[in-house]
């Protein structure tokens, strides 16, 4: 099986290499894609995913944060079947947008987000109705900009995205890991959960 990995906002593919190596150790072929997260070129990103897909084996798409939303947009556009892409795993992705993004916009700081809100970071309503099994991973360690910008410590979050924001109607399973938004991609628990989800259509609970 081949796993294609997309990073999140303000990041580069390099940050996903540790996760990629851990998934290789579990027997997967992997491909990490890089893209400009504040000037997203939809055709360029979608074509890169197209080219990364294996025609010889099932593919799995894994995205951290914004990367998970790009995958959601990609599958809505391409309408691939389960033989082409069998599973999707999102890591700290706000599947219906992030309240922190709304707050950044309210503060007049939209410029720092570029066009990323148009790709799902802006709050919106949605459901998962693709044929792929969807597993959503949430962090619960509130270390990040959220507490400074939102002034709310009531909502359980990974410091950037709330646990509730990582859920979407139609997902196959959801799991929480005690980790912050960025450290989710470095914890050894995430590749274990990805592997278990692919093998069993569900996480370890």
Helix and strand topology:
Blueprint: E1 2-6, H1 17-25, E2 29-33, H2 42-52, E3 59-64, H3 66-78, E4 85-91, H4 99-106, E5 133-139, H5 146-150, E6 173-177, H6 189-200
Parallel strand pairs: 1-2, 1-3, 3-4, 4-5, 5-6
Folded structure, characterized:
The chain has a 6-stranded parallel β-sheet with strand order 2-1-3-4-5-6, with helices on both faces. The chain has helices at 17-25, 42-52, 66-78, 99-106, 146-150, 189-200; strands at residues 2-6, 29-33, 59-64, 85-91, 133-139, 173-177. It is globular and about 50 Å long. 28% of the residues lie in helices and 17% in strands. The protein has 205 residues and is an alpha/beta fold. The mean pLDDT is 92.
Task: Give a brief description.
The protein is an alpha/beta fold.
* Percent of residues in helices: 25-40%
The general outline is: globular
Q: How much of the sequence is in beta strands?
A: 15-25%
Total beta strand runs? 6
Instruction: Give helix and strand order, one letter per element, not per position.
Output: EHEHEHEHEHEH
Q: Give, in spatial order, the strands making up the sheet with the most strands.
A: 2-1-3-4-5-6
Sheet with the most strands, sense and barrel status: 6 strands, parallel
Mean pLDDT: 92
Name the poorly predicted regions: none
How large is the radius of gyration? 16 Å
**Please, how many helices?**
6
Quickly give the structural class.
alpha/beta
Distance between the termini: 24 Å
Key attributes of the depicted protein:
6 strands; alpha/beta; 6-stranded parallel beta sheet; 6 helices; 205 residues
């Amino acid at each position: 099986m081949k796993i294609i990995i997309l990073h999140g906002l303000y990041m580069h593919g390099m940050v996903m290499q540790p996760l990629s190596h851990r998934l290789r150790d579990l027997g997967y072929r992997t491909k990490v894609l890089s893209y400009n997260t504040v000037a997203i070129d939809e055709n360029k990103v979608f074509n890169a995913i197209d080219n990364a897909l294996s025609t010889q084996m099932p593919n799995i798409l894994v995205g951290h944060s914004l990367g998970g939303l790009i995958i959601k947009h990609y599958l809505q556009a391409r309408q691939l079947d389960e033989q082409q892409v069998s599973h999707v795993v999102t890591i700290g992705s706000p599947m219906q947008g992030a309240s922190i993004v709304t707050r950044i916009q309210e503060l007049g700081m939209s410029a720092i987000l570029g066009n990323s809100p148009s790709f799902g970071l802006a709050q919106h309503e949605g459901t998962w109705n693709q044929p792929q099994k969807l597993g959503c991973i949430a962090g619960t360690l509130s270390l990040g900009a959220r507490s400074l910008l939102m002034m709310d410590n009531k909502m359980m979050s990974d410091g950037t995205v709330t646990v509730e924001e990582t859920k979407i109607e139609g997902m196959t399973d959801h799991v929480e890991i005690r980790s912050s938004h960025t450290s989710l991609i470095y914890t050894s628990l995430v590749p274990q959960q990805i592997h278990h989800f692919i093998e069993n259509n569900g996480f370890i609970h």
